[in-house]
C-alpha cells in the first residue's frame, strides 16, 4: 500500500477518535447536572442548627449593687488608767460583756500605800486648819496665815480624792456592752497609763457603708430595704435597711455615702466582704429573654427569632437587666423563639433548625445532608459505566431514578424525592 495512503488513514482515525471522546466528555456533565447534588436539579442547602429559647414572663427589678466590708456599730478600746501589774483577767476574746463589768484587776499594794500617805497628810492639814480657824475667829492670827492654812487643807482633800480614784483604776471595766474582740495583755504584764488592754465591739446590728453615684442618690431614702450577701454564706441572704444618707457629695469621686444596718443573727461578723443590693424599682410579670440572645455584632439592640424555619432579625427595646435575663419593652411577644446559641455570623432569612431536632431524608431513607450527596457522587465514580448509566436514567425522570436506585443503591436522586423524606423526619 502507498505510504501516503497509510498516513491519511491514520489521520482520519485519530480525528474520529478525538471527536468521539469530545462528545463523551460533553455528555458526562449534562447527565450529572441533574443526577448529582450541586447541579440545577440538586438538593437545597441544609438548615443551620441553632439553640433557642422562648420569650416568657418574669418579675424584673432595677437595683443599685455595690460591695463593702461589714463594720461594728461601735468599737471601743479599753485603756489602763494607772500603772500596775496584771493580777487577774476576767474576760476572754469572744465573751459577751455588760457595761461596767470588770475585765482586768491590777496589783493594788503600791496604790494602797499611797492612799494611806495621802490620808495622813489630809488629817494633818485638817487639824491645822481647824486650829487656825479658831484663832482666826479670835483675831489672834493674820488673814494671810489663815488663807494659807485653808488652801493647804483643800489641797490635801483633793490629794485624798485622787489617791482613792487611782485605787479604783486598778479594776478595769467594760465601757459598753458587747463582745470582746481582742485581748492584748497577759497575767503578770506591767501595764501603764493609756495602754490598750482590750477591744470591745457592739456586733448587733452591723453597719455597711457604701458609696453610690450621685445620679442614683434620689432613688434611695432612709428605711429602704436592701439585700446583703456574704461570701462565707453563699446560700443565705440577709435583710438590711438604710439608716442614713450623707448630706454632701464627695467632689473627687462624685459619690454619696450611704450607711445601712443589718442584723447579725449570730452569723455575720465585722470585716466580712458583702454584696449589697438595693431595689429601686420593680416590674412584675414582664417579658424577658436570656441575655445571650442579644446580637453583639450590631450597634442596635436586636435578636434573631425563628419563624417557619427561617431566622429573622428583629429590633427590640430593652428594659431592666438582672442576672442572665433582660426585659423586653417592645419588639417581641410571649411565645416567640429567639436564637441563643449560633447567631454569630447568622444572616437574616437563613434556614435554621433547633439543635436536637431530626434531619429530613429522601423517600429511600438517605439523609439529604452533605454526607449523602458526597456518597452518591463517590458511588457514581466508583461504579464506572453503571454510575454514568444511572445518571442518564435520573435525567429522564423520577420513575427511572427510583428503578435505577433499586439496582445501584447510591445513584443521585431528584430534589423532589429528597424533600419528601425531609418532611417525614427520616434523618439522623
Key features?
428 residues; alpha+beta; Helix Hairpins; six-stranded antiparallel β-barrel; four-stranded antiparallel sheet; 19 strands
What is the secondary structure topology, with strand pairs?
Blueprint: H1 3-35, E1 48-54, E2 56-79, E3 84-89, E4 96-97, E5 102-106, H2 109-137, H3 143-168, E6 171-173, E7 178-183, E8 190-191, E9 196-213, E10 225-230, E11 233-245, E12 255-262, E13 273-290, E14 302-307, E15 310-315, E16 317-322, E17 325-330, E18 337-341, E19 352-354, H4 370-382, H5 385-396, H6 398-408, H7 415-424
Helix pairs in contact: 1-5, 2-3, 4-5, 5-6
In short:
The protein has 428 residues and is of the alpha+beta class. It is built from 7 helices and 19 strands.
Protein model, in words:
With 428 residues, this protein is of the alpha+beta class. Among the domains are: 83 residues, no CATH class; 62 residues, Helix hairpin bin (Helix Hairpins, Orthogonal Bundle), CATH 1.10.287.470. Helices cover 31% and strands 35% of the residues. The strands form 4 sheets. It has a 6-stranded antiparallel barrel. α1 packs across α5, α4 crosses α5 and α5 runs antiparallel to α6. It starts with a helix and ends with a helix.
List low-confidence stretches: 21-42, 360-428
Helix content: 25-40%
Sheet of most strands: 6 strands, antiparallel, barrel
Overall pLDDT level: 78
Shape: rod-shaped
Task: Note the gap between the termini.
Answer: 70 Å
Secondary-structure class: alpha+beta
As a percent range, the share of strand residues is 35-45%
Oligomerization status of the protein chains: single chain
Task: List the strand order in the largest sheet.
Answer: 2-9-12-11-10-13
Q: Over the alpha carbons, how many angstroms does the gyration radius reach?
A: 49 Å
Secondary structure tally, helices: 7
Order of helices and strands: HEEEEEHHEEEEEEEEEEEEEEHHHH
Could you tell me the number of beta strands? 19
Amino acid at each position: 500500500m502507498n505510504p501516503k495512503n497509510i498516513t491519511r488513514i491514520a489521520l482520519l482515525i485519530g480525528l474520529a477518535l478525538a471527536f468521539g471522546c469530545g462528545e463523551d466528555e460533553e455528555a458526562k456533565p449534562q447527565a450529572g447536572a441533574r443526577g448529582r447534588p450541586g447541579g440545577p436539579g440538586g438538593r437545597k442547602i441544609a438548615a443551620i442548627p441553632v439553640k433557642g429559647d422562648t420569650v416568657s414572663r418574669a418579675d424584673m427589678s432595677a437595683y443599685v449593687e455595690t460591695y463593702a466590708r461589714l463594720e461594728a456599730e461601735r468599737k471601743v478600746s479599753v485603756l489602763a488608767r494607772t500603772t500596775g501589774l496584771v493580777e487577774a483577767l476576767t474576760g476572754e476574746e469572744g465573751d459577751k460583756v455588760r457595761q461596767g463589768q470588770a475585765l482586768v484587776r491590777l496589783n493594788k499594794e503600791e496604790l494602797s500605800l499611797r492612799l494611806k500617805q495621802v490620808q495622813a497628810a489630809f488629817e494633818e492639814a485638817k487639824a491645822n486648819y481647824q486650829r487656825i480657824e479658831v484663832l482666826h475667829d479670835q483675831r489672834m492670827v493674820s488673814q494671810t496665815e489663815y488663807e494659807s492654812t485653808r488652801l493647804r487643807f483643800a489641797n490635801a482633800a483633793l490629794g485624798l480624792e485622787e489617791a482613792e480614784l487611782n485605787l479604783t483604776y486598778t479594776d478595769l471595766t467594760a465601757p459598753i456592752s458587747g463582745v470582746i474582740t481582742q485581748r492584748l495583755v497577759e497575767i503578770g504584764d506591767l501595764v501603764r497609763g493609756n495602754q490598750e488592754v482590750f477591744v470591745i465591739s457592739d456586733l448587733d446590728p452591723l453597719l455597711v457603708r457604701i458609696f453610690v453615684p450621685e445620679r442614683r442618690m434620689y432613688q434611695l431614702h432612709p428605711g429602704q430595704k436592701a439585700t446583703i450577701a456574704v461570701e462565707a454564706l453563699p446560700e443565705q441572704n440577709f435583710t438590711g435597711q438604710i439608716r442614713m444618707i450623707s448630706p454632701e457629695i464627695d467632689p473627687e469621686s462624685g459619690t454619696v455615702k450611704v450607711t445601712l444596718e443589718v442584723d447579725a443573727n449570730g452569723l455575720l461578723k465585722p470585716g466580712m466582704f458583702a454584696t449589697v443590693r438595693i431595689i429601686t424599682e420593680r416590674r412584675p410579670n414582664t417579658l424577658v429573654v436570656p441575655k445571650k440572645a442579644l446580637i453583639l455584632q450590631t450597634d442596635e439592640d436586636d435578636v434573631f427569632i425563628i419563624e417557619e424555619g427561617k431566622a429573622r432579625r428583629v429590633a427590640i427595646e430593652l428594659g431592666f437587666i438582672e442576672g442572665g435575663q433582660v426585659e423586653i419593652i417592645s419588639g417581641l411577644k410571649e411565645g416567640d423563639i429567639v436564637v441563643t446559641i449560633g447567631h454569630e455570623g447568622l444572616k437574616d432569612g437563613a434556614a435554621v433548625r433547633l439543635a436536637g431536632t431530626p434531619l429530613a431524608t429522601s423517600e429511600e431513607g438517605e439523609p439529604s445532608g452533605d454526607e449523602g450527596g458526597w456518597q452518591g457522587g463517590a458511588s457514581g465514580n466508583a461504579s464506572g459505566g453503571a454510575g454514568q448509566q444511572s445518571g442518564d436514567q435520573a435525567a429522564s425522570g423520577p420513575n427511572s431514578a427510583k428503578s435505577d436506585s433499586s439496582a445501584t443503591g447510591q445513584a443521585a436522586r431528584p430534589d423532589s424525592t429528597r424533600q419528601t423524606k425531609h418532611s417525614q423526619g427520616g434523618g439522623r
